[in-house]
Amino acid sequence: MDKAKITEVFQSIQGEGLYVGVKQVFIRFFDCGMRCAYCDTPQSMDGEEGHFEEYTSDELWRKIAGLWSNCHSVSFTGGEPLIQKEFIKAFLPRLKAAWITSYLETNGTMYRELAELIEHVDIIAMDLKLPSSTKCRPCWEEHERFLIVARQKEVFTKTVITNGTTREDVLRAVELVAGIDPEIPCVLQPNYYEHDEGVMRKCLEYQIDYSNRLKNVRIIPQMHKYLKLQ
Ligand code: SF4
């Protein structure tokens, strides 16, 4: 793939997960194979708000250079970046050659694509999606295979908790991670659009379930939303 479909390239701070607060250049890739009920990036999806520009590798490199200013890393986000695996696979070595850290934010389902480029990725922020939260099809098997590949590198999982999240799904997610490596950090992320007592209470309850089997479990909200950043 000579060109990538990219919705936006911008500099901001990371708003989610273990690296919250670090300055990054974000490349938001267009398109995603899922349709999570709580998705906050309709601009990167096929639909009314969806849009993209096409970038060659050189154009993207110049764009990153113009935004860089001592960032921590470059985030490949979306949408689902791994849909454009060929482009990313060819692009990642450029970052490596320049000693720039690559950070992949992914829905955690495209394990074959990950396996093809994992050698060039530094950090993986993997969604572990609960069907009772997403209202989409279950992805347990894909998630398990993905996490097995991802743990070759630094990886943490991120799970959105909504009012609809069931404990049954939570316990299955816990077993999935614990069966691979109980040291993998896990983040519970309260759904920003339902930030009421109910969701927070669920996060606190589920943190106990997670902590029964896993060593590093944190509740971290989407900080960029509170700070009104991109
Ligand atoms: S996987 Fe991410 S980008 Fe895709 S629909 Fe779900 S929340 Fe949105």
Tell me the Rg in angstroms: 17 Å
Question: Do you know the CATH architecture?
Answer: Alpha-Beta Barrel
> Which fold name fills CATH's third level, the topology?
TIM Barrel
**Main beta sheet:** 9 strands, mixed
Number of helices: 8
Name the CATH homologous superfamily.
Aldolase class I
Order of helices and strands: EEEHEHEHEHHEHEHEH
User: What's the overall geometry?
Assistant: globular
β-strand percent reads 15-25%
- What count of structural domains? 1
Given the helix and strand composition, which structural class is it?
Answer: alpha/beta
Distance between the termini: 28 Å
Quickly describe the structure.
With 230 residues, this protein is of the alpha/beta class. It is built from 8 helices and 9 strands.
Could you describe the 3D structure shown?
By secondary structure, the protein is of the alpha/beta class. 35% of the residues lie in helices and 23% in strands. Strands 3-1-2-4-5-6-7-8-9 form a nine-stranded mixed β-sheet. The chain is globular. The two termini are 28 Å apart.
